[in-house]
Amino acid sequence: MIRLMIRPTIAAIALASTAPVLAATHTVAPGEDAQERLQEALILAEPGDEIVLEAGRFAMADGLSLDVDNVTIRGAGMHASVLDFSQQQGSGEGLLVTSDGVTLRDFAVENPKGDGIKSKGADDIVYHAVRVTWTGGPKATNGAYGLYPVESTNILIDGSEVSGASDAGIYVGQSSRITVRNSVATDNVAGIEIENSRDAIVERNFVSRNTGGILVFDLPNLPVMGGGNVLVRNNLVAGNTTANFAPEGNIVASVRRGTGIMVMANENVWIAQNLLYDNPTAPIMVIAYPLEFSDPQYNPYPRAVTVAWNQVDEGGKDPQIDGAEQLLVAFGGALPPVMWDGLVGAAGAPPLAVHPEIAGWTLNLTEQGQGMAGARPAPLAVGAPGGAISTEGWGAGAELAARIK
């Protein structure tokens, strides 16, 4: 009889030891010691846990960090739960994530001394309905980047807002399988920047009041090289007329006020079905990297850039280009919508194709790094786009979108 009672008890213990631990919810309210309580929750969280920020303003005196996989940080809304870094003592980012499978959603970061939210080496990450803002407007002293995933694979940025970044509002660098969609980038130097990254889709975003709207760059001397396979489609890129306020020496400090979509030294980039208005230097610009470089593996020329059908206005009506007055006279009052610097790489063929209904012009430069002094402006004469491309494997995986339904 005793033996019969013992056996079920042992079985129950064994079963309990193999059952998964239930995910926990850690709720953090604003108020006294919010910094310490929130950072403690980030440290003690276990994989699968959710950290919930109640509505209100959280006064942050220092940056926050998360290094636990598969954690969700959820607020009550991007205008309801606000992490306020106005009194931040250090100069680092507001929130740093270095773990995989993280979901960040429904909260805001305001006035960090450095970047807003940075994730590094953090694969399978979702930024959904998050807001990063420097409330004093465009200033060189603002942090460089708003949303800043870098050196990662499988990234979804959706329904988010960034303003005031002194470099790029939404920046994805040295990464792959990226989707940036349904987001708003205003009052930054660069609204959205995809740099040294591959297999990216940038779609259905509103990009306005920046110096440059959407930048697709490949730069030398970085840990990950060879950006390419980027689709920029169905975005509204309008009124990017803010004077450049990047700190001196930053690469984006050279971006001309009034640039809509700019491709520099990248490969296999498609620009299609965007609405481009009031980008008075150039709605679309395709150029080689203009500076000296020492990286022997770097290719400074754009390759296989396609400008398909886009709805554009008449083009550059107030270009921030040397000799603008003479150029405007030569082109009848507005520079055509597509500008190419005229540089051709080793392949020897023009690096771009343009829809026949969209006019363009070329600087006809002959050497990389030559600058406007060597320009011989003329109407653009390049081929038309070919057939549709395959974007299989581009963009974030569907499993990331499933997290935010």
How far do the termini sit from each other?
53 Å
Low-confidence stretches: 1-20
Overall average residue pLDDT:
93
Approximate helicity band: under 10%
Query: What would you call the structural class?
Result: mainly beta
Number of DSSP-assigned strands = 32
**Overall body shape:** elongated
Strand content: 35-45%
Radius of gyration: 24 Å
Brief overview, please?
Helices cover 10% and strands 36% of the residues. The protein has four helices and 32 strands.
Task: Report what the structure shows.
By secondary structure, the protein is mainly β. It has helices at 2-18, 34-44, 324-330, 398-402, and strands at 25-28, 50-53, 56-59, 64-66, 72-74, 81-84, 95-97, 103-110, 117-120, 125-133, 145-150, 153-158, 161-163, 168-173, 176-181, 184-186, 190-195, 198-203, 206-208, 212-217, 228-233, 236-238, 259-264, 267-272, 275-277, 282-287, 303-307, 311-312, 338-340, 352-354, 360-362, 378-379. The protein has a domain at 173-249 and 256-402. The protein has 4 helices and 32 strands. The strands form 2 sheets. The protein has a 20-stranded parallel β-sheet that branches. A 12-stranded mixed β-sheet has the order 4-7-9-11-14-17-20-23-26-29-31-32. The longest helix is centred in the N-terminal third of the chain and has 17 residues, at 2-18. It is elongated and about 65 Å long. The N and C termini lie far apart (53 Å).
